[in-house]
Design goal:
The complex is a heterodimer of chains A (about 750) and B (about 100). In chain A, about 20% of the residues lie in helices and about 20% in strands. Chain A is an alpha+beta fold and about 750 residues long. Chain B contains 3 helices and 6 strands. The chains are: A alpha+beta (about 750), B alpha/beta (about 100).
């Protein structure tokens, strides 16, 4: 039966029309019509502009009749469009009065802010025709992907091991060995690798449509082209980056991305998107008209009293996130990515901006953040904030959360980096960071699950560079090394940059193993930077946002060159995933509150039960009681972690285990591979049950459990130095029978 | 096996998809398995991919089959990347289907 409200009522140049439906905004296929709807509070008139694909000139411009507008929404149905072969945009008429915040210009053709498919930058690096009057072009999407039984995975957040990656950098390197380098399809080809590594969540740096040619220029250093590679500059909030799809040239990026997500889910891997709702690619008053500025400048942007753009993003403008209509757009965007793409979570870039009011002032209960925390569609979606902005607002530990928001824990990064390089005055801070930062997240019922722990991320050094460079080396970015973070808390281990000194290189690998060990035994959600598992270097560049070349691309040859690192990462990640006692959701009690014989966590030093607290102390140990972390009624093992960030070797007295249990060695970062780590569950019985010797700048991870009836020789024969570590006889103190509180 | 070969034109996109879909569905409606011969088809668009998948869904709901013949490497690659490939069986020639 045909609906009477799908019958044309108007005609314009042979096209049949009728008044459209205001909701939803954007272009929606309804029967044999496409419904176009767009909101503008201050526009006086609007025209729908239709192009045949890739044509410079439109084939028709249809005015929205007076009866096609309700309130501030223009909506119109156009019948019988061959919508696979058309692109559309809008012209908006209205006042041009920058002091009042209005910048309407009806000579501009504007992209739909709700466009779900955007074309114009379809193949990466293909120079655009700048003479074309319409650069970023809206298109109607085919949204009927066959998901079969797929849904977001809803993996408990405390079970995640996040892998932060860039779509292009991940597989562009020549040695990546994929058929479709630099694309969503390329990631799909690497799913077996991700599974082998053991991560269960990938976090993609921005994949919303952006323009790699924004501010692109030849490097003044050597002439190579600098691009906007990272994409922290949205053109649209609903469309995937076309050039990240090998099928982008056919306009099939939506299907290609959905297929990647479906395959990731089928392999137990979640996907989190890094989303940038703090600004757009339109820049300040000197920037281009792409969409928002010409559709409703005063609605979409935070403006100064005299009509200029607030710049809390550091990128020229600031999205007016707490304007009710912009807020709706953000919520709609996120809902769309969850319902239509089955996205598992979001990481919000410079999220502190989302808590500023329309005048730029921080709010105590920002309505946008509250809406997202309570949204029904996003009810089980991970929400992670980068809880600071470029305007100086720093909210790590205080981001308004309603018990829903997690944060990138920048304080974790800073404390662990300082500990790694042997700084003083850091031990108390490190103790907080290792147990899920209760000083930051114990309030508001946020729990350990609020802390996304990381040591490296896309901003800053890679892990290999963190141990290879004292200072940044960003000359290739063409800004005289002024860009990028200056305070890196890095240490080059004795030589600036790559070197062939075996001792320095061994120490660097050791430090990397220390870092990943600390990350994986910390309570909280660990996040690994893509490539760190193979010792990827950016040659000291700590801000490679513009480097579409070997600086930014992962060099997959490193997988063989640094095979010891890759092996170590695999085993330590597996270890974490096998031990629930490392993955608490809420903070620990620091006492034996269930009367299980030992506290849930206890602190130790070189003497058992006696953690040192001197300002210059660099030795620390903790023990987790596996009886507090049962799986199906089975208690986990005891885990003891000895950290010696002093440059000298120290003996660590081991706490005595419950009767029937013995200490086993899982990892010793001071040993050469393959004696540095073993397969989880096949740890070697320690010959000395009372004390271990931990080498300078080393860590040992011990597992307390009943010895296996038959000891299998799965770990290669220990060399003499490890025997020395294990053989030193010292009587261990007995644990108090009922430890009420030990720190 | 009650099977009919349906030859797809040079391009399967929105300009041809409506007609092609009607013809394919008519064969399925007659209770026939369909061999889609794409030997001469060099381009399948988003709309075209959906014609094939919809035919597969209709066939599967009636316990019929849609088999693909002569799919070019490029089209096959696009189908694989976009998630449409897994539903079909592929053959080089019509004779191979038998």
């Amino acid at each position: 039966m045909q609906r009477v409200d799908l019958f044309p009522t108007h005609e314009f140049e042979g096209l049949k029309l009728r008044a459209g439906r205001p909701y939803p905004f954007g272009a929606t296929v309804i029967g044999n019509a496409v419904n176009f709807s767009i909101y503008s509070r201050y526009a006086t008139a609007c025209t729908l502009v239709l192009f045949h694909n890739h044509e410079h000139e439109p084939f028709v411009e249809i005015p929205f009749y007076k009866e096609f507008r309700i309130g501030n929404v223009f909506s119109m149905m156009v019948f019988d469009l061959d919508y696979e072969n058309i692109e559309y945009g809008f012209r908006m008429d209205g006042p041009f009065n920058p002091q009042e915040g209005h910048r309407f210009d009806k000579t501009k053709i504007l992209m739909d802010p709700y466009a779900k498919l955007i074309v114009g930058r379809d193949v990466w690096g293909t120079p655009p025709d700048w003479n074309c009057p319409y650069q970023y072009r809206s298109r109607v999407v085919f949204d009927d992907f066959d998901w079969e039984n797929d849904q977001p995975l809803e993996t408990p957040v405390n079970d995640l091991v996040i892998y932060e990656m860039h779509v292009r950098n991940f597989t562009c390197g020549a040695a990546a060995g994929v058929e479709h380098p630099g694309t969503f399809a390329g990631i799909a080809e690497k799913i077996p690798y991700l599974k082998e590594l053991g991560v269960n969540c990938v976090e993609l740096m921005p994949i919303h449509e952006f323009d790699e040619f924004e501010n692109s220029k030849p490097s003044p250093v050597d002439g190579h082209m600098l691009y906007n590679v990272w994409g922290y500059s949205n053109v649209g909030f609903f469309a995937p980056k076309a050039a990240y799809a090998s099928t982008g040239r056919f306009g099939m990026q939506v299907d290609e991305l959905k297929n990647l997500i479906k395959q990731l889910h089928a392999n137990g891997i979640e996907i989190i998107l890094d989303v940038v709702f703090n600004h757009t690619a339109e820049g300040n008053e000197n920037g281009p008209y792409i969409s928002y500025r010409g559709i409703d400048n005063k609605t979409y942007y935070m403006l100064t009293p005299d009509g200029y753009y607030f710049n809390f993003s550091g990128c020229g403008n600031t999205l007016n996130c707490n304007n009710p209509n912009v807020r709706d757009m953000i919520v709609e965007s996120l809902r769309y990515w969850v319902t239509d793409y089955h996205i598992d979570g979001f990481r919000f870039d410079l999220a502190a901006i989302l808590g500023r009011d329309q005048n730029g002032c921080p709010m105590s209960n920002p309505p946008l953040l509250e809406s997202l925390a309570h949204d029904p569609i996003l009810g089980k979606t991970k929400l992670i904030a980068e809880a600071w902005d470029a305007g100086g607002l720093y909210q790590v530990g205080s981001f308004p959360s309603w018990g829903r928001w997690a944060e990138w824990n920048g304080k974790y990064r800073d404390a662990i980096r300082r500990f790694l390089k042997g700084d003083e005055h850091v031990l108390q801070d490190v103790k907080e960071r290792l147990v899920g930062s209760p000083d930051l997240y114990a309030s508001q019922n946020r729990g350990i699950k609020a802390s996304v722990n990381f040591i490296t991320a896309h901003d800053g050094f890679t892990l290999m560079d963190l141990v290879s460079y004292n200072g940044k080396h960003n000359e290739a970015n063409g800004e005289d090394n002024r860009d990028g973070e200056n305070n890196n808390n890095s240490w080059n281990c004795g030589w600036e940059g790559e070197c062939d000194d075996p001792g320095i290189n061994f120490l660097r690998h050791q430090q990397i193993k220390n870092a990943i060990s600390l990350l994986m035994v910390s309570q909280g959600i660990p996040m690994v930077l893509s490539g760190d598992e193979m010792g990827n270097t950016q040659f000291g560049n700590n801000n490679a946002y513009c480097q579409d070349n070997e600086i930014g691309w992962l060099d997959w040859n490193n997988l063989e060159k640094n095979a010891d690192l890759y092996r170590f990462f695999r085993q330590i990640i597996r270890f974490r995933r096998q031990h629930k006692v490392l993955r608490y959701e809420y903070h620990l009690g620091y006492c034996d509150f269930r009367n299980l014989g030992y506290p849930d966590i206890s602190w130790h030093g070189v003497k058992a039960w006696e953690p040192a607290s001197g300002y210059n102390n660099l030795t620390l140990a903790f023990m987790l009681n596996g009886r507090y972390a049962e799986t199906d009624g089975q208690p986990d093992d005891f885990i003891y972690v000895a950290m010696n960030m002093h440059w000298e070797m120290h003996g660590f007295e081991l706490p005595q285990l419950p009767e029937g249990m013995q200490w086993h060695v899982f990892a010793n970062t001071g040993m050469a591979s393959p004696n540095d780590i073993c397969e989880p569950g096949r740890e070697c019985l320690a010959e000395n049950q009372h004390e271990i010797l931990v080498g300078g700048r080393s860590m040992m991870i011990m597992v307390g459990k009943a010895p296996a009836p038959v000891v299998e020789a799965t770990v290669p024969e220990k060399d003499s130095s490890e025997k020395e570590t294990l053989e030193k006889e010292t009587p261990a103190k007995e644990a108090p029978a009922k430890e009420s509180k030990k720190k | 096996m009650n099977t009919e070969v349906y030859k797809v034109g040079a391009v399967l996109d929105s300009s041809t998809s409506k007609t092609e879909q009607q013809n394919i569905l008519a064969l399925l409606d007659q209770g026939k398995n369909v061999i889609l011969d794409l030997t001469e088809c060099t381009y399948v668009s988003s709309a075209g991919l959906r014609v094939m998948l919809y035919a597969y869904k209709v066939a599967a709901s009636s316990k019929l089959q849609v088999l693909l013949v002569g799919v070019s490497d490029e089209v096959r690659d696009v189908m694989k990347i976009t998630g449409f490939a897994q539903f079909f069986k592929y053959f080089d020639t019509v004779e191979d289907c038998k």
